[in-house]
Amino acid sequence: MITRHIFKISLCALIGSWLAVNDVHATEAALTEDQISSFGCILGGTGLVAAAYLAGPSEAIMLWGGGLLTPSGSGVLALSIIGGMGAAGCSIGAILAPTVSWAYQQL
Amino acid sequence: MSIRYTKFFTVVATCSAFATPLNAQNIDSTNVSTKMSDAAMQGVGCLALATPALAAAYAVGPTEIMMLVTGAVIVPSSASQLLISLGGILGGAACGVGAAITPNVLWILESLQQEKSSVQNTLAPNNLQPVAEIAPTAVAESTISTNEDMVQGWGCLAGVIGISALTLATAPVEIVGLSAGGVTVPTNSPILFLGMAGTVVPAGCTIGAAASLPMLVLSRNLGLDAIGQAIASLFNWNYHEPAQLSNSKAKYIEANVSAIEQIKGS
Predict the structure, then answer these.
(1) Which residues, numbered 35 to 64 in chain B, qualify as contacts with chain A under a Cβ-Cβ cut-off of 8 Å?
(2) What is the pTM assigned to this prediction?
């Protein structure tokens, strides 16, 4: 049950961030590169967490962390995935966001 | 299904690795208003290093490399599981290193471009501009900014080279295994190198980048930067002396001076 909720929340955050970025571009409001990077962090983090929940969260966290321990509960699993994959996705998204934003502006 | 995903991802990663720098260069050279910002260029640097790393991993043996860099002891059941763990850890590590060294790569490319254009201008037959107009421009062009990002980029490179050399000189298989907490032994050298790229290399970059600024301050306080400037002057790197003309620009001015004197004489 918690797994479904987390997947739905991740998906909502992903769509919400994308819509927010598009809205800002549409209205040509001033958005600093740090803010764009923050949106990229949210998009990347939620995207990777959603992908992990879609592919199979228990196996994903075992592959990611090199563990052999099956999570005992949904809360433990969610914290592990957010702490590991969410942080990595955030980092990659924050780095790539200004580039994606620049490419979007060229279209 | 897994092999199909692997082939598809390898093709996409390879194409994007070649496409990103070319696109950035073309757009940058054709239209000034579309010039990318430093942060956007760091994203290109991220892609330029991460995509070849992932393509190489998928070409050499993705499951084994994934087990090396993550320390996993189970085989992924699907291509998506493999991609999430390998892309997140190896891709993320290469992305971070690529973004960190992007300012330095741009600085090197800019320096090479300036040297090339300066030599071309020197050799141009009808280039007879007054020296008073040329000299300030040449000096201004040589003042390539040296900000904190560049210092951290050099630190990252130094850390990567240092930790990689130390790892290879001691016990690379054991160090990679200890870093990731895994038990997998790499079967060949490319897998070992990619395993290092996902474990010790990003660590070296992070340590080098973090330590570079305090080390720079320390070396300046101890007066050691004079040694660095002396070494830089041997290779004609005007890194710490922006007002000094490079050899090619000095030749450029000298050629124009002699041309003007010849015109005055005639």
Answers:
(1) 36-37, 39-44, 46-47
(2) 0.69
